[in-house]
């Protein structure tokens, strides 16, 4: 029998440590790196959610699969990446960021990590050549990955001349911030994270004999998908239980489900998890993992109704998906805007959506009660995130609360639920919240969360001054016309640093919450990097009372809402270290009124 001449395609299931024992390059015909900060943060958050429990302890043995890459070897033995460059570039940046984090904290960098970034290889001539494990060949990169990997220049000094460079440098900064926020300066914890990341994050490398076949495999994967997940298996199960005459209806219903989830920007498996957690009672300490979803449906088929009414189950999934998409877009099931949903998105970013478990559980509520529920969830979410509560903790809470929330029917029962669960959980962490705000630094929090905090503080004063005639949306305070102003400037004019009483700690004070305020872009351009005396007239022109009060307190009549609103705000004639600490204490007291006012004994 004549031997087949069909080119051989190989696949290997590899962890990241083994994957980066080889050398890769992204060919020049590939598109540039396009991941935004939210995509990078989502990858890191998913890894953390998988490997850490609700007490933020690293759990043993679990693995996390991040998909597949397609590659072919060139004549020199380097893998040409045809699919997967976004993930591979991000993983490489994680290696660089962990290395830099350890070095900057005076720690030795493991050889395994250094070798995953750069190593030697033998050329055809027998010479040793030192190469980075990943090289970008497309023109728009301008060697930025090599600059970061080689520490040739500080990342903040790399000029963002192309979209790729801006995205890559922002991705690196996002990873560094993730490490600071989650591990502080605890080198041992960073090392544990690194070990889990290297050894337990896995993907499939599909190797083809040449470029043409690599492109064909890439096309096939994207056209057909790879493997069956819980979503596919559930679909098959429903078809097995459905009468043949209803196949067409089920097919249409399922297509609508998939389309709606896609438009919501959600992973199907996460939607399924949140669907189960919101609609059914989950037993067990750890909730429901993605690899347990299909088994759960099989084991609970009678309760779900898969045997007796598979079409109804598909309909329930579609109904929840429709609601989910509306929630993601800041609306109730009736299409009414709920600003607190949008606020949570601005606070949480795209990586954290656990609040949608409770939103799904309470979707039956009238719009006014639903809005009240979400308002309180926003406040709780702030408490969780500002105190760095692991997402596993509040996911577990929400899954446990969902059955109780589904029974809420009126304002009285809703208030009982909120008081007994939401406010009770907030009350336990009041001191932690206050401490976190009092110690808040720009370097220890994502920029979008910092913008959210400043927007909420600013909005609160505005609402109080104008008798709540300002709505609850934050859009006005987060528009492109508004910027974060550093009162003590980041790039000071000559003499400012020297005139600051704590000049050696200048940069620390620059990043403190007390040194930050929102300022209209038109005014910010005029105050620039000047001395405080030169900036004060600009602050006085701001329409934001929290900013205006830095320079002067507005007064209208006697005992008016405006006067009462600014009565607890402070005005400053100097701007030294004590002034910044004083303002941070003032903002901490204001934060208590913004997020903790509903909790018994928390309002001041």
Summarize the SSE layout with pairings.
Layout: E1 10-15, H1 16-19, E2 24-26, H2 37-51, E3 64-73, E4 79-83, H3 85-104, H4 111-117, E5 118-122, E6 128-132, E7 134-136, H5 144-150, H6 163-183, H7 187-200, E8 201-208, H8 211-224, H9 230-241, H10 247-263, H11 268-279, H12 293-299, H13 301-304, H14 310-328, H15 339-348, H16 355-361, H17 367-386, H18 391-405, H19 411-427, H20 430-438, H21 447-465, E9 482-486, H22 496-499, H23 506-510, E10 516-520, H24 521-527, H25 532-540, H26 545-551, H27 561-566, H28 577-595
Parallel strand pairs: 2-4, 2-7, 3-8
Antiparallel strand pairs: 1-8, 3-4, 5-6, 9-10
Q: Which word captures the global form?
A: globular
Q: What is the count of DSSP helices, taking H or I runs of 4+ residues?
A: 28
Low-confidence stretches: 223-227
Radius of gyration: 27 Å
Averaged pLDDT: 87
Derived from helix and strand composition plus strand pairing, the structural class reads: alpha/beta
Helix content: 40-55%
Give the strand tally. Answer: 10
How are the strands of the largest sheet arranged? 1-8-3-4-2-7
Which sheet architecture does the biggest sheet show? 6 strands, mixed
- Percent in strands: 5-15%
What distance separates the N and C termini? 88 Å
């Amino acid at each position: 029998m004549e031997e087949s001449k069909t080119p051989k395609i190989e696949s290997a299931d590899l962890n990241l440590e083994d994957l980066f024992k080889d050398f890769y390059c992204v060919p020049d015909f590939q598109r540039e790196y396009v991941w935004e900060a939210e995509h990078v943060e989502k990858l890191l958050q998913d890894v953390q959610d998988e490997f850490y429990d609700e007490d933020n302890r690293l759990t043993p043995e679990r693995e996390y699969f991040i998909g597949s890459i397609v590659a072919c070897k060139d004549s020199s033995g380097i893998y040409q990446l045809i699919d997967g460059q976004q993930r591979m570039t991000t993983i490489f940046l994680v290696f660089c960021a962990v290395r830099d984090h350890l070095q900057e904290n005076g720690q030795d960098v493991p050889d395994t990590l250094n070798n995953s970034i750069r190593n030697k290889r033998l050329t055809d001539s027998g010479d040793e050549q030192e190469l980075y494990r990943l090289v970008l060949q497309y023109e728009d990169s301008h060697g930025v990955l090599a600059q970061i990997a080689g520490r040739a220049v500080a990342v903040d000094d790399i000029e963002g001349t192309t979209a790729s460079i801006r995205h890559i440098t922002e991705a690196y900064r996002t990873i560094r911030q993730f490490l600071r926020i989650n591990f502080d300066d605890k080198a041992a914890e960073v090392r544990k994270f690194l070990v889990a990341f290297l050894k337990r994050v896995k993907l499939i490398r599909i190797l083809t004999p040449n470029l043409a076949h690599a492109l064909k495999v890439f096309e096939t994967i994207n056209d057909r998908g790879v493997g069956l997940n819980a979503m596919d298996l559930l679909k098959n199960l429903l078809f097995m239980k459905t009468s043949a005459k209803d196949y067409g209806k089920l097919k249409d219903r399922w297509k609508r489900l998939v389309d709606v989830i896609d438009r919501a920007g959600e992973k199907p498996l996460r939607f399924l998890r949140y669907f189960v957690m919101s609609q059914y009672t989950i037993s067990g300490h750890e909730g429901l993992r993605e690899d347990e979803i299909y088994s759960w449906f099989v084991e609970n088929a009678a309760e779900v109704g898969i045997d007796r009414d598979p079409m109804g189950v598909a309909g329930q999934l579609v109904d929840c998906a429709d609601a989910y998409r509306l929630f993601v877009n800041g609306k109730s099931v009736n299409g009414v805007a709920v600003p607190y949903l949008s606020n949570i998105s601005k606070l949480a970013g795209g990586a954290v959506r656990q609040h949608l478990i409770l939103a799904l559980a309470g979707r039956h509520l009238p719009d006014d009660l639903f809005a009240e529920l979400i308002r309180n969830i926003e406040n709780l979410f702030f408490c969780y995130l500002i105190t760095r509560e692991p997402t596993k903790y509040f996911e577990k809470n929400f899954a446990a609360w969902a059955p109780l929330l589904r029974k809420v029917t009126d304002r009285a029962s809703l208030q009982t639920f909120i008081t007994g669960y939401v406010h009770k959980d907030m009350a336990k962490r009041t001191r932690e919240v206050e401490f976190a705000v009092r110690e808040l630094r720009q370097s220890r929090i994502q920029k979008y969360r910092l913008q959210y905090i400043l927007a909420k503080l600013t909005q609160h004063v505005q609402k109080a001054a104008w008798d709540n005639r300002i709505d609850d949306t934050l859009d006005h305070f987060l528009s492109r016309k508004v910027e974060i102003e550093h009162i003590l400037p980041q790039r000071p004019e000559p003499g400012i640093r020297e005139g600051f009483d704590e000049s050696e700690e200048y940069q620390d004070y620059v990043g403190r919450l007390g040194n930050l305020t929102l300022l209209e872009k038109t005014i910010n351009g005029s105050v620039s990097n000047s001395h405080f005396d030169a900036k004060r007239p600009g602050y006085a022109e701001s329409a934001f009372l929290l900013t205006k009060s830095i320079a002067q307190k507005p007064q209208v009549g006697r005992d008016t809402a405006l006067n009462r609103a600014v009565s607890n705000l402070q005005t400053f004639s100097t701007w030294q270290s004590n002034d910044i600490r004083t303002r941070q204490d003032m903002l901490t007291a204001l934060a208590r009124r913004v997020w903790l006012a509903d909790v018994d004994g928390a309002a001041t």
